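ok, trying the design again with the full structure, not the truncated one.
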């Protein structure tokens, strides 16, 4: 047994929690919303009384929390949670730094948790613990990172009868036009946007903008740059809070990558903007040369080399591969370019390059797990920096798929799973146990789709979004 769950360890955490509990109680909170991330990018949890003891010993969850497939189904053959090991318990431990009052819930506070084994060691398949370890690894090299996500989402009108019958394709969109950056879209989204931003601010989540996107009922909200762990926490919380707000207003927020493929929308992506810093210096910018630094080039080489193998992280579901069309900003190959929206990695300098120079990783759909996607991006960057490799020259404007220098990204889950499993980089960076567990849950997901749909890969390439995909991902992606 590690010191973590010793009597002294628990007593120390209870003491540390007392001031936090008093602060939340003074804000009128009597209950705590446990917000425990699953490995799919959603928060699950419990409502419990507010007490210091919870912060000392945590609360138990079944291991299957981390073996959830699409639609809330469970993968009982995953190495970490299966019928042979009995799918036992793990401990969800509140992170004091994330404890916030939720004013719109009146007497409820929220706190994000990490998973631990019963012996007090970090859970080996917890993506939040993985990202925490990446931050620690960077700190030993005097590095830090700033991360800002851009999240696209479908918003539709709620119809309980249709939803009970799982007729999600028939729900009308919240907005009639496909205009992006519109301030006149009908019906008005202003009230929704202001309340969403207000709630996020109350929870310590800085939202920079909320606007319409290219597609009926499509919207985007963007976050201010944060540390990697805070950026992921903000992402999963904002997703939960927007879903709750929409439900209150007779709306539904859907985070599927592609709800349909015949309406001319851009599908739902989540661009990851990030830079690496040493102290107050953005090491992606070379001030003496006035251009992208050599360190950034090494990081780009690591990203591009590993991008095909890490595709399963950024496109984790059957439906994710619907969102693959370079012309709509969903890259098809491991390419990069300066201010080029058609590539996998866009280099952005902005008006103040010494501060704003960054990479925009454009592969992820909005259905990814931000803890895992951010961790994989930073690990790939650090790998490239260690190996000091140089990438191919930029992809110029135009169609990067016609440039044979760039490796093609997987077009469907079976190919992505195979590359993920075969990759030395994946095993070394994510850990063999995490990689085996995650790939098995994705394999079962594809097997479920294959059992339900004739000619599954052909259906993804040529057919409309299937009812199976809508039932599976509409509410839970």
């Amino acid at each position: 047994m590690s010191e973590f769950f010793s009597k002294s360890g628990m007593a120390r955490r209870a003491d540390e929690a007392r001031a936090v509990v008093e602060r939340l109680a003074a804000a009128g909170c009597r209950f705590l919303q446990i917000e425990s991330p699953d490995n799919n990018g959603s928060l699950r949890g419990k409502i419990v009384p507010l007490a210091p003891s919870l912060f000392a010993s945590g609360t138990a969850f079944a291991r299957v929390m981390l073996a959830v497939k699409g639609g809330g189904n469970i993968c009982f053959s995953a190495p970490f949670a299966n019928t042979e090991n009995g799918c036992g318990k793990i401990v969800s431990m509140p992170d004091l730094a994330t404890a916030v009052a939720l004013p719109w819930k009146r007497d409820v506070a929220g706190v994000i948790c990490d998973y631990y084994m019963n012996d007090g060691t970090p859970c080996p398949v917890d993506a939040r613990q993985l990202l925490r370890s990446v931050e620690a690894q960077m700190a030993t090299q005097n590095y830090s990172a700033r991360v800002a996500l851009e999240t696209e989402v479908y918003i539709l009108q709620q119809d309980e009868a249709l939803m009970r019958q799982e007729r999600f394709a028939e729900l009308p969109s919240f907005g009639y036009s496909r205009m992006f950056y519109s301030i006149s879209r009908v019906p008005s989204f202003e009230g929704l946007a202001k309340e969403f931003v207000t709630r996020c601010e109350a929870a310590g989540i800085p939202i920079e903008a909320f606007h319409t996107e290219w597609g009926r009922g499509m919207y985007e909200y963007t976050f201010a740059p944060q540390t990697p762990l805070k950026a992921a926490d903000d992402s999963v919380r904002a997703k939960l809070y927007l879903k709750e707000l929409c439900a209150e207003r007779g709306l539904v927020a859907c985070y599927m990558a592609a709800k349909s493929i015949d309406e001319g929308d851009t599908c739902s992506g989540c661009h990851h903007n990030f830079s690496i810093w040493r102290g107050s210096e953005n090491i992606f910018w070379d001030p003496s040369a006035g251009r992208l630094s050599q360190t950034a080039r090494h990081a780009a080489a690591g990203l591009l080399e590993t991008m095909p193998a890490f595709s399963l992280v950024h496109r984790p579901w059957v439906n994710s591969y619907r969102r693959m069309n370079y012309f709509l900003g969903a890259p098809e190959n491991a390419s990069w370019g300066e201010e080029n929206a058609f590539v996998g990695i866009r280099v952005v300098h902005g008006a103040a390059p010494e501060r704003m120079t960054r990479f925009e990783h454009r592969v992820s759909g909005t259905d990814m797990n931000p803890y895992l996607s951010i961790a994989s991006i930073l690990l790939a960057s650090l790998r490239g920096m260690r190996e000091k490799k140089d990438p191919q020259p930029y992809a110029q404007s135009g169609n990067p798929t016609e440039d044979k220098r760039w490796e093609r990204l997987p077009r469907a889950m079976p190919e992505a799973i195979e590359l993920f499993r075969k990759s030395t980089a994946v095993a070394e960076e994510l850990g063999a146990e995490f990689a085996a567990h995650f790939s098995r849950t994705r394999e079962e997901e594809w097997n479920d789709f294959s059992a339900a749909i004739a000619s599954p890969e052909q259906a993804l390439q040529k057919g409309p979004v299937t009812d199976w995909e809508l039932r599976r991902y509409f509410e839970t992606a």
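Keeping the full-length input from now on. The two ends are 36 Å apart (CA to CA).
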